[in-house]
Input
Amino acid sequence: MKPEPDVQILAAHWTARFTENGIPSDDLSATVARIGRWGDWCREWERSAGENVRRADAAQEIGAALTAAELRLVAALEYHFGKFLFVDDQATLGRVTALAADTYRQASTQLPWPAQQLAVRFERRELPGVLRLPEGEAGAVPAVIVVPGLDATKEEMHRFSEVFLRRGMATFTFDGPGQGEVEQVMPLRPDWEAVAAAALDTLTGRPEIAADRIAAVGVSLGGYFAARAAAAEPRLRAVACVGGCFSLARSWPTLSALSRAAFTVRSGAASDDEARQVAGSFSLAGLSPKGGVPVLVVHGQQDRLFEPAQARAMADHFGTWAALLMEERGNHVLHNLAYRVRPAIADWVAAQLA
Output
């Protein structure tokens, strides 16, 4: 029987990620205090989310629609972080994933930069996504595809998207294969350039979007996905990879047990050994960049999931088209430095799309 993760240690590691993406610190501490073991994790986060849904319903009843939407956004994120690595219980994961997605849909249409539901048609399935447009912009606007990672979803990308919206860029984020609403019907895949092509087909057909001014920004394994797109998709004007990897197999031995389990399930592997083999296909080594797409590689020296050498290998792969920003105190995806790193990324992307 494998040992259970230590909830307090996990919560400490994830604090910056949770709070920077919209979990109130009081809810975080109160929820974690109720959790005695990993098996209780999802249930207690679902309880916190349900409390915020009830608060949202009460606000809605008195006509406070914006307050209701803000509370539902918190609830959606709490549902998400309850199930994001809870892969050992697929029934619970599927049920709470639906709660997160439904609650987010209710919230995101009523919040600043209201979301439009926009699906990507990919291999006879629809990948659900949200398009958000900047305010006060005339004509077609530049756009950023914001790419989640192994355990993230479109819901988690809500706040990150807003640094681009504030700078006059539209944002589009969606659940790709192995993510969010489609994770139980489509496995993760290494050739994400095919997914990127489908997303670009969707965006370039929209009159609100400037088809020749689209970038992609990916976080964690999404950084690898975005890099695959940069190497193969000439319709992208720029790509930023935040806390990504050049080769998943290189970091496999040091990945946490929860991350390995999540990859095993979401890749469709039957065992840890098979997942290790599948991880070998998640590499940039076999995809030579065509050139012409500027790539910004952003990484933290304190990254516990993907060592800094991964970022250097990614930058070397793209050669003169790449710029490497290494933050000495940064953790994985630099959540602890998000207040200044995210705006810097958005400024770089805006300059490339200008």
Q: What stands out?
A: The chain has a mean pLDDT of 97. The longest strand covers residues 209-219. The chain is about 45% helix and 15% strand. The first helix runs from residue 7 to 20.
